[in-house]
Write a structure and sequence with these properties.
alpha/beta; eight-stranded mixed beta sheet; 174 residues; YbaK protein
Length: 174
């Protein structure tokens, strides 16, 4: 992979795609619990969906980016069945960097910008799985390629971003 995209490049891409966004700065977070603790400065209105994002793979080296509502418990065994993959495990930090250009704690659907930039090498595709319930919120929140900020977009903006990056999301109830 070329050098991973920066936050500035992400925001330039969102602007070019005419996807509105708003970013909130905070200390770096690595877990959902830590992210919940830094929300004091973020909007408190209802309708805002915070997420958990998992990058997984099966034994055949097929990959999936699972984007779910943060309160969801994700059972990897049943998830594999739902999305038609073999037994799932978390991808290593090296795979995470190689495929999405981010480090652990910063997994985000915005990292598909880096996957889009990767030349077609005939390697495994990334299946993008979206939690149907997350998309019912007026705004959804993700890290902007690092874990020291959170960026809000509309669900329609998220889907547009994913499609412009060349992926067709699978939207399912989790």
């Amino acid at each position: 992979m070329e050098s991973p995209a920066t936050e500035t490049e992400l925001f330039t891409f969102l602007d070019k795609c005419q996807i509105a966004y708003k970013t909130h700065r905070h200390s770096p977070v690595f877990t959902v619990e830590e992210a919940q603790s830094v929300r004091a400065g973020m909007p408190k209105e209802t309708g805002h969906g915070h997420s958990k994002n998992l990058f997984v793979r099966d034994k055949k080296k097929n990959h999936a980016l699972i984007v779910a509502a943060e309160e969801r418990n994700i059972d990897l065994k049943s998830m594999a069945e739902k999305i038609g993959m073999g037994r799932l495990s978390f991808a290593s930090p090296d795979r995470l960097m190689a495929h999405l250009g981010v480090t652990p704690g910063a997994v985000t659907p915005f990292s598909l910008l880096n996957a889009r930039q990767k030349p077609n090498t005939g390697g495994p595709e990334i299946q993008v799985v979206l939690d149907e319930s997350l998309l019912k919120h007026s705004q959804v929140y993700f890290h902007p390629l690092h874990n020291a900020a959170t960026t809000a977009v509309s669900p329609d903006g998220l889907i547009k971003f994913i499609k412009v990056c060349g992926f067709e999301p699978l939207i399912i109830p989790l």
